[in-house]
Amino acid sequence: MKIFSMLVALVGSYYTFTFGRSLWVDDKNKLGGFGAVLAAFAGVAGLFLLLFYK
Question: Which tens digit of pLDDT belongs to each residue from 32-44?
Answer without folding.
Answer: 999 999 999 999 9
